Structure formats: structure tokens, C-alpha cells
Amino acid sequence: MKRKLHYAWIIVFVTFLTLLAVQGVRLSFGAFIQPWEEEFSLDRGTISLISTLSFIIYGVSQPVIGRLVDRFGPRVILSFSTLLVGLSIFFTYLVTSPWQLFILYGIIASLGVGGASNVASTVIVTNWFNEKRGLAFGIMEAGFGAGQMLLVPGSLMLIHWFNWKITVIVLGIFLILIVFPIVLLFLRNSPSEKNLQPIGGANKESTKSEPADNNQIPYRAVFFSKKFWFLILPFFICGFTTTGLMDTHLIPFSHDHGFSTGVTSAAVSLLAGFNIIGILISGVVADRWSSRKILCFLYAVRALSLVILLSSHQPVLLLGFAILFGLVDFATVAPTQMLATQYFKQYSVGFILGWLFLSHQIGSALGAYLPGVWYSQTGSYSLSFYLSIIILAGASILNILLPEPKKISSTLEHDHSVQQS
Known about the structure:
mainly alpha; Growth Hormone, Chain: A; transport; transmembrane transporter activity; Major facilitator superfamily protein YbfB
């Protein structure tokens, strides 16, 4: 007899689809830069400010989203955040002046993107998986890479064939009429809502999305914990060097080095494709090996890839960089999520992840803005890449200094007692 598919895998597929759609739309911002410059007579710096504002709103929303997830459950947050992004993108076609873009895309859509992100998705996957959690995180996180691979070139093609207004209408309808109903109908906050047990059984270690009594949980103790800061700081560096530095500046860096549009496009596509592979591999490995050692390795390899990029004066080196960087791009997220849910299982998962992804988005905002400023002053990205190599080495060291989760029960109590004293 065939074994019945556990509903937890439906949960993973729906969260994957949600992240693919919402985050893919967010990552498509670059496709609209030139059309908006022409439509509204804006310079590149002003358009970039919309992206910077979006990163900030997205990041600041994460701790708030975490508490809302604790209160209303991840299903409500994910579904209605998807709807909010869809409506915001759809009504962008009515925009007639730049300030409306700042409000509609930079603020309103970014709040929706913040809701349909890792925080709520991680909570719901954690509730459904007590085993194979790393694999589930990897599949979920692969939605980012799949969205980058499908919706970014898809948006470019629609803009090329029609115009940017038709493109935002299509993206908005996709989110409103297809993704939102699927999320609302099929997501469930926990296995109990389907009279099921999580994969791995209820007797395993689990982290609930809503603590029994929020008033009794010593949240301040988190900020006195070495484990919290040794996760936060590397994840900040992760945001600086990936969605900040690479997603914003890789294409102009490539053009500065004389690479053709074809070579640059191939590099971006390779990076996105190997990003998916790296995410899935890291999720599987996180179930079988030490997450802290995985993170130490990933940040070290990312630093090495930037060394290759600095010396990439031939197309083969740029493509080699794209493959190597892609493998370790978002691959850091699943093991970081694993450690967060293991270290802080007695706290609110939404609260912890909210702060974690806030740090990532602050890093992303700085990684998008500072290299542009330094390039304007020096005419080169070298300073940004040298700094990134150094801080990535630091991130690698911080992760290896973390304790193994199975040895932390006593240290958690120690952290709490130190905070109380």
C-alpha cells in the first residue's frame, strides 16, 4: 500500500509558492528602474531611494510581524500580506508622480513583503516538522531563488513586449487571484487543526508559534545572550553581502569590467539557478550535520567567491564566481533558522526571527546604499568588496564560536540567571 502524503508537505509547498510569488515580485524591482526613470524623469539615485526605503520598511516590520504571528497565527499573516502586495503592485499602474511610488511600493507593498517572508513561514514550518526540518526549511527558502529565476526575467520580458504598466497588472492579478486563495485555503497553523501530528511526532522537540504566557517570558534575557548576537551579526553581514551588495551592484560592476549584456545575464541566471541548488543542499545537510559548522563553511566560501570576483577580467571567471556565490547565497538561511529554533525554543519563534531578519534587512539596506556612495567617491567597487571579504571572515569565526544546540540547556539557564542578577 502506498503511504499517504503527510499534510506537512502541502504546507511546505504552499509556503514555497508564497515566497516565490511575493519575494519574486520584490526581487523584480531592478526590471522597473529604467522604465520608471523614463516615465517620471527621475535619476538613478532617486529610484534607488525607493529600494532603500523598501529595505528599511521590510526590515523594521520584522519584529512587529513576529508578534502579529504570535497573536493571529502565520496563516492569517501570510495570506493577507500576499493580498496586500498584490493590491499594491496592481494599483501601481495608476501612479502619476514619484511620491506615489514611494508610498505605494516603498511603504505599503514593503509591509506586505515583510509579512509574507521568512518569519511567518519559518514559524509554520517549525510547527509542522520535528524531523526533516532542515529539508523543509531548504525547500521553503528555495522559493526566493525560484522567484528570482522566474519572475525577474518574466518581468523583463513583459516590459519588453508590452510596458511596465501591463507588467504590474499581470503581477498583481497573479498574487490576488491565484496565490492568495491558495494560501488562504490550504495553509494551517499547526497539525492539530487537521487532527494530525507533526512529522517526527509530538514527543519530539518543538517550538510553538504562540507561547503559553507572553508576560512570563523573559525576552530581555535574549539580548544578554551571546548566542543571540553571534547569530544576529553574521546574518546582518549575510544581508549586506547578498541582497544588498550583489543583487544591487553585480550588474553595474560587470558592465564596468566590460562584460557584455549576454555574459552578465548568463552570470545572473547561473547565480539564481545555483542559489536554489545551494538552498536545498544546505537544508538537507542541516538535518545531518552541525548547523554552526555549516555556516562557518558557507561564509568562508562566500568570502573566497568575492576574491574571485575581484580578479574576474575574463567571462569564465565571472561565470565561475556566479556558480560559487550562488551555491552559498541563500544557503545560510536554513541553518540559521535551525539554530534560532533550537537555541530559543522556550521563547516566541516569531519574536526571535523578527529580530533576526530585521538585522538581515538592515544589512541589505546598507549593502545597497554604501557601495553606491563609495563608488561615487572612488569610481570603484574595490573598497566594498575588500570590506565584505573581511566581515565575511568575521561571520565565519562568530558561527564556529557558537555552542552546539544539544549542549545549550545549561547555558540557557545560565543566561537567564545572569540577566536576572
